[in-house]
Structure of UDP-glucuronate 4-epimerase:
Amino acid sequence: MSLLDDPPSTPGKFKMEKSPYFHRVRWHSSLAKLTFWSFVFLGLIFIFFFRSPPSGSLPSDPSRRSLRTSGWGGSAWEKRVRSSAKVRSRNGISVLVTGAAGFVGTHVSAALKRRGDGVLGLDNFNDYYDPSLKRARQALLERTGVYIVEGDINDSALLKKLFEVVAFTHVMHLAAQAGVRYAMENPGSYVHSNIAGFVNLLEVCKSVNPQPAIVWASSSSVYGLNTKVPFSERDRTDQPASLYAATKKAGEEIAHTYNHIYGLSLTGLRFFTVYGPWGRPDMAYFFFTRDILKGKSISIFEAANHGTVARDFTYIDDIVRGCLGALDTAEKSTGSGGKKRRPAQLRVFNLGNTSPVPVTELVSILERLLKVKAKRNIMKLPRNGDVQFTHANISLAQREIGYKPTTDLQTGLKKFVRWYLNYYSGGKKASG
Ligand SMILES: O=C(O)[C@H]1O[C@H](OP(=O)(O)OP(=O)(O)OC[C@H]2O[C@@H](n3ccc(=O)[nH]c3=O)[C@H](O)[C@@H]2O)[C@H](O)[C@@H](O)[C@H]1O
């Protein structure tokens, strides 16, 4: 076997370069290398010019799973975009909803459309969880007249085009890489969506005229290791326990910057464990339901010394009202042409339920609703980003945006279970 067949992989093996045999083959190998790299170079040019989609493309990112963007542009497409974003009520707003095929995105889009606002969705339909659920949500929205453009928030050309076609008054930014534990598996996807994607969106929003007001999803996870309860917006948020939390916290700081420099009106909403019909299969209430029904055991986390793990579970309809309240009270951005004229609104609100429930109690409610006993496997809370409890103080949101949650966990889960049984009967399988 020659040296070229067995390239050195350790510094030690490089000593072989001194061999006279190596000098004899070097000239031939250089020619071969030159030919090889010329082919690679020509190949790359071919791929770049002839194979890239005509209508904007995604930056390559190996951290993404199955990320497709279908073609956009053309007069029929623009007509569809305009029609979906058309305001149909007096004093209505036109909203670009990113992550519209997501759980919260679907509900918010439908609610806005119902009251006569113009709504255009944007979603990349990635396969973080079962994309068929996203497609089903899309079909639901289509029936209400909401069109979802398939694309990524990192695609500047697409975002610019959307603002060229429609002068959106508001952006409801819900596209994100969610999930606390998954951040250990795929950190790049959090940076891609929650940081790079958010910055890209803000870059476009700051440049358009008029600038939209932006309401976006932060997270209760920014409170991290904070132990002061209930969590108030004034509490410290500099101890994130997961990369997910850190990217959401970074988002809050990034929002501050764009507000400060460019006069963008920005409102961050710290959602507390949102659940309900059409929910996310990666969340505990959802996969507990699936596994209990299948007779599979479920892992229930407990803290040190049998400490209770609890969440301020918040029902989707309450969250939707919070989102609409934030949109309705958002002041206009104050910049144009990338320059700020005067200070703009910058807000952060907790959207929780203010009554934490232990995860063991969540399971008991599910058992009663499903009429099946769960196979409980009590486990130590893993050190992968989960915090022991969350509890929202919502007085600021109550005062400023009229937020008032009304659904307790029992009532909300009843609605979820009804939806779940209905959705997954008829051949559909819960996965993700
Ligand atoms: O408020 C948020 O900002 C976040 O809410 C949600 O995170 P979490 O509150 O962690 O929800 P979720 O995973 O459903 O776990 C619920 C409970 O079950 C416990 N849990 C979980 C898994 C398991 O196998 N066993 C278990 O006991 C677990 O320890 C926890 O106590 C969103 O996913 C996230 O995207 C973000 O929006």
About this structure: The CA atoms of residues 110 and 141 lie 6 Å apart.
